[in-house]
Design goal:
The chain is α/β, with parallel strands linked by helices. The protein has helices at 9-22, 39-50, 85-91, 93-99, 112-115, 148-154, and strands at 2-6, 28-32, 64-67, 74-78, 102-106, 118-125, 133-140, 159-160. It has an eight-stranded mixed beta sheet, sandwiched between helices. Pfam families: TsaE.
């Protein structure tokens, strides 16, 4: 686990960009946090770093957006409106990732046990600080273990002691 502190939207995008540079096809990244914490903003920074040219918007009502103009295909899902794990399974997220690309899943913490190995990015707003966020990255499963030293190095500018 690594804890980061960012002070602006620009820094949030920089953290997302650093993560995008470390990502590879088959990765699942869960974006957790309260409403308005910055999950979609994080996804926008991530997608821009992949070279995606389309505007990245929240898939709250469509459930999944797929962008294929970047270095990797980006599948961006939002599980906020889903009530049951069966509905998550019906989306076919595993199949999308197995075919190609990386999957970002907003509100994915509610379905973490069925998503398999993933990296959780938990974003929290800091009290009385409009743009300041705490971002905690936690690897679940072995997918990120071989890359963890690179993760620590990439996020050193924002790392805080826990």
């Amino acid at each position: 686990m690594i804890s980061l502190s960012v002070n602006s939207l620009v820094e949030t995008h920089a953290v997302a960009s650093a993560l995008a540079q470390l990502s590879r096809s088959g990765d699942v990244i869960v974006l957790a946090g309260e409403m308005g914490a910055g999950k979609t903003a994080f996804a926008q920074g991530f997608g821009q770093a992949l070279g995606i040219t389309e505007p990245i918007t929240s898939p709250t009502f469509t459930l999944v957006h797929t962008y294929d103009s970047g270095r990797l295909v980006l599948h961006h899902a939002d599980l906020y409106r889903l009530d049951r794990l069966g509905e998550v399974t019906d989306l076919g997220l595993h199949e999308m990732v197995e075919e190609s690309g990386v999957m970002l899943v907003e509100w994915g913490d509610m379905a973490a046990e069925i998503l398999g190995a993933h990296l959780e990015v938990c974003i929290s707003r800091m009290p009385d600080q409009d743009d300041q966020r705490k971002i905690v990255l936690t690897a679940n499963g072995q997918t990120w273990t071989p890359r963890w030293e690179r993760v620590l190095s990439a996020f050193a500018p924002w790392q805080v002691e826990m």
